[in-house]
Amino acid sequence: MPEGDTVWQAARRLHTALAGKVLTRSDLRVPKYATADLTGRTVLDVTPRGKHLLARIEGGLTLHSHLRMDGSWKVYANGLRWSGGPAHQIRAILGTADRTAVGYRLPVLELLRTADEDRAVGHLGPDLLGPDWNPDSALENLLQDPARPLGEALLDQRNLAGIGNVYKSELCFLLRVTPWLPIGELPADRATQLPALAKKLLETNRDRPTRVTTGRRDQNLFVYGRAPRPCLRCGTSIRRADQGDGSRERPTYWCPTCQTGPTPAPGRIPPSERRPLL
């Protein structure tokens, strides 16, 4: 699942393959930009911004993409077979003399003036892996709506950029509260720790092929994707339920023993993962 660390890795791969090189092939397979031709232009850099990718191109242009749930960029040496998915899922092709970058299932792809990048990413909060990171601003943003559930506040990229559903669940576990706890009720000492802890998790994983939050070799994650297996700390069955603001529900995981705070109504928890009645 693409989150800030995954996007950072994708940007590094694209930057290594394309930056400083002249495009010999350009194919943007979205109607609005189908006739755009970037061949002959040099790629200046590829920069991540939260979960967004900005490929800056000679002539004051930026190719902006967002991976969301299923998108990906693959880089191939010229002559190798592309293996990122069927051809109809390709949304962008950028080729140089020795490498080709192929964007699959990109839900967001737009070509804009570099001077207008703020139109695409200006709403984002401080980037956990970016040069603009500011823990004080991130915490201030999070606490602006004290009644908002912590999990929803963490996913709001306007507060801080880079956290997705996996890190949301893992952070709440490490903070020992449920994702449904109003963020204003998060104990002050843990609220102060939150920005640094989030940054540590993403920085630790940005160079790893497999995301790890536990520090263990036998289990990578504390709660995400582990229901109804036992909690690594206390042995209680991990729970799963959907969480969202009504526009989108996301699977959310927590330990009912290690984490305190509100939990969803039983109807929102899959029957196989509900705690038996005693």
UniProtKB/TrEMBL annotation:
Residues 222-260 form the FPG-type domain. It holds the Pfam family Fapy_DNA_glyco. Keywords: DNA damage, DNA repair, DNA-binding, Endonuclease, Glycosidase, Hydrolase, Lyase, Metal-binding, Multifunctional enzyme, Nuclease, Zinc, Zinc-finger. One of its GO terms (biological process) is base-excision repair. It catalyses: 2'-deoxyribonucleotide-(2'-deoxyribose 5'-phosphate)-2'-deoxyribonucleotide-DNA = a 3'-end 2'-deoxyribonucleotide-(2,3-dehydro-2,3-deoxyribose 5'-phosphate)-DNA + a 5'-end 5'-phospho-2'-deoxyribonucleoside-DNA + H(+). One of its GO terms (molecular function) is class I DNA-(apurinic or apyrimidinic site) endonuclease activity. InterPro entries: DNA_glyclase_Znf_dom_DNA_BS (IPR015887), FPG_cat (IPR012319), FPG_N (IPR035937), H2TH_FPG (IPR015886), Nei2_N (IPR044090), Ribosomal_uS13-like_H2TH (IPR010979), Znf_DNA_glyclase/AP_lyase (IPR000214). Residues 258-278 are annotated as: Disordered. Residues 2-103 form the Formamidopyrimidine-DNA glycosylase catalytic domain. The keyword Nucleotide-binding does not apply. Its EC number is 4.2.99.18. Belongs to the FPG family. This is DNA-(apurinic or apyrimidinic site) lyase. It comes from Streptomyces olivochromogenes. The lineage of its organism: Bacteria, Bacillati, Actinomycetota, Actinomycetes, Kitasatosporales. The gene is nei.
